[in-house]
Structure formats: structure tokens, C-alpha cells
Amino acid sequence: MENNNKSSNHAFFSYCRNPNIKFETYEKGEEVILLLRAHPITLLGNVLNAIFLIIFLIIVNFVIYQFFNANQIFLINIFSIVFIISYLWYVFLNWYFNVGIITDKKVVDVDFSSILYKEITVAQLKKIEDITVKSGGYFESLFDYGIVFIQTAGTEANIEFINIAKPSDVASEINKLLSHKHEP
Q: pLDDT tens-digit profile of 43-88?
């Protein structure tokens, strides 16, 4: 008999069920249910920006040859290409490392706002009071992504998963975990 809950360890997926991962606040014996990232379609704007910059660089090359010599143009092109590649690399790292993790005990939101700074927000399942799913607009409906806002009790921080794939499935998965925690 095939196991439908089989682990999926695809590094570039935005919705991974039962991934085999460990993280900073991982506790021994804890089962990771979901690993979430922003939907890949949300990267499209950044990729289009990079393509626009490359096209702009090509157009500028036809104009600046009158004002600069070949060595200067070469340096300008190298600097511009390094800038564009660095921009794309930063966008990718930001997408890859901003994750949401749902376990059988807690919900974890890991936010990298720069290469050297991260913020980890953890909410125990028993502290979750409300889950709100926000998804509106043509692209969000077409590609099934949106925002999941998790409100917690007391002074614990609220958690927000932005532009994640299958937000309704994520909310129902958390609700299932909550209902299992409240059963006698």
C-alpha cells in the first residue's frame, strides 16, 4: 500500500507537505507538517525588472560608445551585469529563506529582511485563537496564493504568511491540528 503522506523534499517548492527538515526551534520528536514559501509567481515582477535592466543596458550601450572608450564601456557593462545578478540573487535568497513552518506543536515564521538579519516568530498551537485567509485579485485567484494571518492569545506575536501557495489548505491544516489538540 502506498503512503499518501509521503515526504516531499523538493527545495524549490512553495508548499511542501511532511518535509524532512530541522530548524532552530525544532524540538526532538516534533513532526513537521508543512513548509511554506511565497508562491513562485510572486517572483515574476522581480525577474521582469531584471530583464528590463538588461534591455536598458543594451540600449545604453548604443548611446554611450560616443562618450566613453572601449575599456570604460566594458567596466560599465561588467558593473551593471554584476548589479543585476546580485539583485536576482538577493531576490532568490529572500524568497528561499522566508519560510513558514507548521508542526504538530507550533507554527513558526522565519523572516529574513537582509542577509545578516532574521526574525523568527513562534506560536504554540494552544495559543492560536484565529486564522484569517486573505486572497483577492486575478493573479491570486488564478495561481491560488494569498495571505494567512494567525492571531495568537495574549502577548505572543501574531504570525503572517505572505503570498503563500494554497492559503485555504494551510488554514484547514492548522484547524485540523487545533481540533486534534482540543480533543480529550
A: 999 999 999 999 999 999 988 888 889 999 999 999 999 999 999 9
Closest CA to 78 of 100, 57, 62: 57
Burial 102-136 (b: 16+ CB within 10 A, else e): bbebbbbbbbbeeeeeeeebbbebebbeebebebe
Domain boundaries, the chain: 15-38+98-181, 44-93
Dmax over CA atoms of the chain, in Å, equals 80
Which CATH fold would you assign to the domain 15-38+98-181? PH-domain like (2.30.29)
Q: Residue 37's Cα: distance from chain center in Å?
A: 3
Please enumerate in sequence order all residues whose Cβ is within 8 A of that of 169, keeping only pairs 6 or more positions apart, or say none.
15
